[in-house]
Amino acid sequence: MTTGATAVPADPAGDPVPDRDTPTWREKLRADVPASLVVFLVAVPLSLGIAVASDAPLTAGLIAAAVGGIVAGALGGSVLQVSGPAAGLTVVVADLVGRFGWGVTCAITVAAGVLQVLFGLTRTGRAALAISPAVVHGMLAGIGVVIVLGQLHVVLGGEQQDDAIANVLALPGQLLGLHGPAAVLGLAVIAILLAWPRLPRSLPGWVRGIPAPLLAVVLVTVVAAALALPVERVEIGGSLLDAVTPPVLPDGQWGAFAVGVLTIAIIASVESLLSAVAVDRMHTGPRSDLDRELIGQGAGNTLSGLLGGLPITGVIVRSSTNVAAGARSRVSAVLHGVWIVVFSVALLGLVEQIPMAVLAGLLVVIGARLVKLAHMRELHRHGELPVYLVTIAGVVLTDLLTGVVAGLVLALLLVLRRVVWASIEVQEPPSSTAADPDDRLGGARPWHVVVEGALCFPSIPRLARRLGQVPAGAPVVVDLVTDYLDHAAYDHLSEWIERHEQGGGHVRVDEVGTMGLLDRRAASNGGPGDRRPGPVPRFLSPWSVWQAGHDATYGHGAGHGHEDEVDDPILTGLREYHRRAAGLVAPYLSDLADRQAPYAFFLTCSDSRVVPNVITSSGPGDLFTVRNVGNLAPVGGDTSVAASVEYALDVLEVPTLVVCGHSGCGAMTAALRGTGGDGVLGRWLDGAGESVARWRAGHPVATQAAARGASDVDQLAMVNVAVQLERLREHPAVARALAAGRVRLVGLYFDIATARMSVLDEDRFVPASRDRLGAGASGTPGASGTPGDPATSAIPVPAVDPS
């Protein structure tokens, strides 16, 4: 059994020895300082562009970037996430600036930051992840569309309009009247940003590693300055210290102010948490503490608003750059904020050389990348594309809050529909009379009524219409593939079955789902009803639970079956396999058609209650299974087991040999009581004589099992596993494989009453559900091995590893 954790060794005194894989501070700095410089070079142009799109002072973008790096980077719960002004908030901020002015917008940012801190302190971080990804992606895509539509006008040398519709209507005229140098510069930036990631791999790594936004902004700005092009440039209007402005409270509109605070807090929180989760997938370091991340983001927004900066969030572009640049700790994010402060104080004059069209070109590409075709394809597969499109339309045509609310409402309606809406189909019998006679009912080919999903009262009108298509007196098979059946639907379906049978029809209910038409009808007719403890799929259920006619509950006594319908359970099971499982397992079997490479030789008892693939969560091709009475391995006298072992080792080259015993074993009972008789069975059970003798002599496995209250038979079954492993070890092929270190032995014990597995760990069985087993978890009895021998060293137990 393997886990992702690595044990920390201890010195002789018992103190932990530092893990050599953990980087030292010197190693972290060696990686974090270069990474911070790369992120800094990416962050500066992005922060300026986002400030432009937000109708905020340009210095507000730099302030937010510095605070996001230093404060959120130091206090947040994501080690490698980088925070700063984000494109996802530009539309909201621009609307707030237009409505309240910049000072009040800063106050909204402060209040939103305080609210985020409260979110984190009350441990509601994960609750934000409950928002549908379709809404979040649709919100970002809608913001991207708004940015592109507005900034395209600036790229072309004109002025953006008041809303998205006006931008669309004015775009043809803007294209017909390109404004000379500004359009050339903006289009050049777009071309560089699109072409740079597609550079040939033959170029040196340091060339391809130059951040595309930095290259585009610097190169085009230098060209514009060298040619002295007459274009509009960035205007800072003072130093960074002069730009620090305190927040201002509004004179009124407190309701709109509160809505703005809540909007900024929720969007910034959701975007930060989603970004943190995405960043966790990019590295193998510590996972994010989402509640702490909210506290860090809230502290950053509070300080950013107090200093006159934009709202901040965790930003996936800068964060992914940080990971790709080799950052090892949060020091990289903090240092990138320090570099922004140094740049903003000492080199702010360089910013005023940047043409506005250059920043607009950068924003066009940023906005376009918020609309992702991959998200659309994924949401389409899950049936959530309408939510995505409605959210985009709402954000573009109205405002961000309206778009998000519209998306959330539609997402909830779709969830409600899935919960209460069932798919109901009626299939006529095929016209061919040469069809499989096993699919007949009452001597004729039946109609099929297939009901899938949750069958509730809203679906009853459609159910009635579909059932009305079945001719009176016709044989019918009702396939109930349902996970919920409410009382109204149960009543309607039961009454229809009774009416149809009274009219001479035959009805068989094939209940594939877990919600109980058959159980309820059995209970109402005096049967046991509700016999199943929970939603168990058919491949884990005995035939008596689901096969009509194989149990009294599902026969004529239930009011809808007929004695002449009773099929052979095996044939019924085969038909069920072909109808529902064959298509699912076929791709795997197709890959295994020409060869097999099982992971384990699995020797177990013939008992019908022991199902190897179920108890090991394995599938086709995983186990080379050998079964006999008592899971005995008399390799010296029984050629079948010996031949199976040799084939598994020499031909299939399995790395694991497993012996699995079980509770209540009939073979162990007969061997213990000597009731095997003088026939073939008795002679076979003589192979368990050594196990009986070892049990009577007080085998350590038996002693441990007795201390836990195991019965004599179950103690013997556990001892028998250990003895059979020793017998396997004596087989020449196994001995050679053990000496070569290419095989391991595993002992298992299955308690049928509790459905729990145990693993032989030296001289005792321990629960297989433990994360890690002890030093002797090789499945071989410690008394028979030598410490340090490959066969008795600490080995994980792959046969029960859920992975």
From TrEMBL:
The keyword Zinc applies. It is an enzyme of class 4 (lyase). SMART domains: Pro_CA. It comes from the Bacteria. It holds the Pfam family Sulfate_transp. InterPro entries: Carbonic_anhydrase, Carbonic_anhydrase_CS, Carbonic_anhydrase_sf, SLC26A/SulP_dom, SLC26A/SulP_fam. Residues 1-22, 771-803 are annotated as: Disordered. Its main location: membrane. It is a multi-pass membrane protein. Catalyzes the reversible hydration of carbon dioxide to form bicarbonate. PANTHER family: SULFATE TRANSPORTER. This is carbonic anhydrase. It comes from Actinomycetospora lemnae.
